[in-house]
Amino acid sequence: MDIFDLIGPIMVGPSSSHTAGAVRIGYVARKIFREEPKKAEIILHGSFAATGRGHGTDRALVAGLLGMHPDDSRIPDSFEIAQERGLDFSFESRELRGAHPNTAKIKLIADDGRELEISAASVGGGRIEVRELAGMPMHFTADKPTLIISNNDKPGSIAKVSEVLSREKINIATFNVNRSSRGGRAIMVIECDSIVSPETLQHIADSPEILSVAFVDPD
Amino acid sequence: MSFLSVKEMISGAQEAGLPLWEYIMVSSAEEAGISTEKSWEMMAMRLQAMKDADAGYNPALRSRSGLVGGDGGRMLNYARSGKSISGDFMGEVISAALRMGECNACMHRILAAPTAGACGVLPATLLSYAKKFDTSDDEIIRAMYVSAGFGTVIAERASIAGAEAGCQAEVGSASAMAAASLVYLHGGDEQQMAHACAIALKNMLGLVCDPVAGLVEVPCVKRNAAGAVNALAASDMAMAGISSRIPADEVIDAMAAVGETMPASLRETGNGGVAASPTGIKFREEYFGK
Ligand code: SF4
Q1: pLDDT grade, residue B290 (50/70/90)?
Q2: Crossing angle between the packed helical segments B248-261 and B137-157, to the nearest 10 degrees
Q3: How many A-B residue pairs are in contact by the CB < 8 A criterion?
Q4: Which of these ranges, A48-52, A127-131, B43-47, B92-96, has the smallest mean pLDDT?
Q5: CATH superfamily for domain A146-216
Q6: Burial of B167 (C-beta count, 10 Å sphere; 0-12/13-18/19+)
Q7: What does the alpha-carbon distance between residue B158 and residue B252 come to, in Å, rounded to a whole number?
Q8: Looking at chain B, which residue has its C-alpha nearest residue A57?
Q9: What pLDDT, on a 0 to 100 scale, did the predictor assign at position B287?
Q10: Which 170-189 residues of chain B touch chain A by CB within 8 A?
Q11: Residue among B67, B102, B103, B171 to mutate when testing ligand 1 (max atoms within 8 A of CB)
């Protein structure tokens, strides 16, 4: 374990799993959505539902959706800030079958009606895991620079993406493809060893079979 | 490399011909792939975060549940009245621990060390020490490396999570880390640091995690005061030349073993200990009824 996991992180309290991890879940959801949502419907499960309010899990999730990091001292005021910025949010406590005890399921809705559903768990020490994205089971932590690419599941799209990354000298740590059905839509999750520039993201997005490209930075 | 034992960590420093704090800084920076300058800068930022959090304390604040707030201020007034049982310095330490625990419960920005629940122990001891002995920031940063070194061994061999091993792993670990760094600040040698760590952790062995209503409030905030005072006692014992009969590594292993035998009700579920007392249950019902 790194010494800065012992002396750190610097975070808004009271709980690394219920507060810091929740901010991170909101932040990662926003990054994958690629814009500030107009509306967020949030389902809290397990311990998030049971003790979430006392730990400020609700405010933490909204803070993350507004783009805040776990050390942002405005986290306690996130509801008011969301109101000012026109982000409409709602909470519901519900049992999600088989989900990790600290799970939030978030449906984000954009101005033009575009929707995205993401389910993520806070697994301790402020670390998180995305468990489901757009109805597909997932498993990534977003603690490395991570690309989330939605594409048509056609031959060549994977090669195209890795070609662009290698041209930009971005080393791939892990590469996962999740697809709903053969020939349908797929989501690639690529953990990289370095930050991916907006230009590179654009290059990837320019390929014909690529539907969307999102990038989550580690902090 | 991460340190797998206190013994290895100390002998590694001796072989490298470096003071323990520097050996910890150099090896951890190497492992993380960052420069020692960057590492120092990150540690300095963390010292500043502790100071800022303490400066931002407001005795009027209350936590969401209303169970926590104001006690740090109450304790400080009392300590400064000159009438306290434990004396001015210890009174300041107790107050500082309560203040930080309350900051955390009230959603202020704090430094987790090693966790948010135990965030009061390190600043209460180190910042109060610095004030009393007029210690420089650089020296406190070195002491924080010592804390971090002992902390990594505890995390590797045992745990720093209440959900895994109870509060002995959170406030207990924080107390052991603080004790070692107090010995460093007071001019003790590496062996004395290890003894202080061992003594502090032994005194916290078996401490359960039993947050009322599952919130990091009761008993967490006051437990930080206990962890801080225990660190003072352990470091003074070590400085007096008292040794721990059981070596630090074996105490840490014992803590892990105790943690493994703890029932789930005493590991952050809020179903045992004071959380399951009649008043604890009443608070929970009131809180969830709200
Ligand atoms: S009682 Fe549990 S939640 Fe509270 S400080 Fe101790 S370990 Fe953390």
Answers
A1: low
A2: 50
A3: 121
A4: A48-52
A5: ACT domain (3.30.70.260)
A6: buried
A7: 6
A8: B107
A9: 84
A10: 177
A11: B171
More confident residue, A50 or B185: B185
Which residues in chain B are closer than 8 Å to A11, comparing Cβ atoms? 109-110, 112, 116
Does the bond joining A145 to the residue before it have cis omega, within 30 degrees of 0?
no
Closest listed residue to residue B10, CA positions, set B191, B218, B132: B191
Q: What is the pLDDT of residue A130?
A: 97
Write the burial class of residue A152 (CB in 10 Å: 0-12 exposed, 13-18 middle, 19+ buried).
middle
Q: Which token pair is A75?
A: 């986290």
Burial class, B161, CB count within 10 angstroms (exposed 0-12 / middle 13-18 / buried 19+): buried
CA distance B272 to B211: 8
CA distance A212 to A214: 7
Cα(B205)–Cα(B208) distance, integer angstroms: 9
CATH class of A3-140: alpha beta
The pTM score is: 0.92
Q: Where are the domains of chain A?
A: 3-140, 146-216
CA distance B42 to A100: 33
Q: In chain A, helix, strand, coil percent, each to 5?
A: 30, 35, 35
A51 touches chain B (CB under 8 A): yes
Dihedral over Cα of B100, B104, B109, B110: its sign: positive
Task: From B118, B135, B115, select the one nearest B126 (Cα to Cα).
Answer: B135
List, in sequence order, every residue forming a beta bridge with A212; answer none if it has no partner: A150
Q: What is the pLDDT of residue B1?
A: 54
Burial of A27 (0-12, 13-18, 19+ CB in 10 A): buried
Which residue ranges form the domains of chain B, and what is each CATH number? 6-288 (1.10.4100)
Cβ neighbors of B267 (< 8 A, separation 6 or more) are B162, B163, B164, B165, B166, B208, B209, B259
* Angle at the Cα of A54 from the Cα atoms of B265 and B58, rounded to 5 degrees: 120
- Give which of A3, A53, A69 to mutate to test B binding, by max B Cβ within 10 Å: A3
Tokens coding B151: 């902390």
In chain B, which residue's Cα lies nearest the Cα of A5? B114
Write the DSSP symbol of residue B209.
B
**Residue indicated by tokens 């709200």:** B290
Q: At residue B105, does pLDDT exceed 60?
A: yes
Task: State the greatest distance between any 2 C-alpha atoms of chain B, in Å, as a whole number.
Answer: 61
Q: On the CB side of A79, how many CA atoms lie within 13 Å of its CA?
A: 8
Q: Whats the size of chain B, residue-wise?
A: 290
Q: What is the mean pLDDT of residues A19-43?
A: 97
Measured CA to CA in angstroms, residue B24 lies from A114, B21, B122, B147, B245 at distances of 50, 5, 18, 10, 25
Which ipTM value was assigned to this complex? 0.95
CB contact under 8 A, B216 and A55: yes
